[in-house]
Amino acid sequence: MTEACIRTAVEAIHSSPYQTVLYLAGGASQILGLLLSVPGASNTVLEAVVPYSRMSLIQLLAKIPLHFCSQQTADDMALLAYNRALKLSSPGSPVIGVGFTGSLASGRPKHGEHRFYMSTRTADRLWISKVTLTKGLRTREEEDRVSSHLLLKAIANACKVPSNDIPELSESDVSDECVKQFNEDQELEQLINGQICFKIYPFRSEIPAERKIILPGSFNPLHDGHIKLMEVATRICGDGYPCFELSAVNADKPPLSVSQIKDRVNQFEKVGQTVIISNQPYFYKKAELFPGSAFVIGADTAVRLINHSILR
């Protein structure tokens, strides 16, 4: 892959609306230089973490993986990166979680394969790939470059921008990949089950501000009082992006069904108001999920919060 092709691919990625978090272990280190050396990286890269030691990766995953270099580990890293990107991104921006784990050439001979696993997660798609490199064909630096170029292509594909064919793989290298697609119902099921932390429906027409002004509620139904409360709060708070927030999981009731969630979301679409569907019924968890946001509450909710704090 020539430098000109690389730059063209990176410029296309930075020009796309997608924002990305990358978790990388065991290789593809050059991807960071490729992305950050081209102007516009702040449009794309929200965060990059390299959990290189075993303990670092264990802490990231919050578990000991069965295999540190495996497709499951790459998928877990991509899902964590996706949820992290949701929290860091501008409201309504599409996000990508990238997971990479590799076992490449090192200073000592390896008995197993030289291989790496890649995974990219978006709202409606999980792309996974395993690449097995021919042992002894390349140096560690060359294997890292190959893995970085292939990961760049994967990110470009996730951003839905063109990427040229990459000629680094030899005939003896082996590459396998597959794609899993999600529809809206499946995404909401993942939210209810706790796999993803929230889903935003950006029905407002204006460009979102980085700070959110959030009005939580059950909205069964949404009424004028909710809209007017948000309008007043927005005037008081000043700069911010108004969002209503509905938790699919309740503290003392069964979770909402997918059809119930979609019915309530339809109310917001009709009036052009952005709504976030989360799975956090408690305010302290909402505050952790949306740091830096201003929360708007009605009188009844304020009384419940005060009474709860007194009881504790």
UniProtKB/TrEMBL annotation:
Pfam families: CTP_transf_like
Listed GO MF terms: catalytic activity
Organism per entry: Medicago truncatula (Barrel medic)
Cytidyltransferase-like domain boundaries: 214-303
UniProt xrefs under SUPFAM superfamilies: Nucleotidylyl transferase (SSF52374)
Protein name: Nucleotidyltransferase
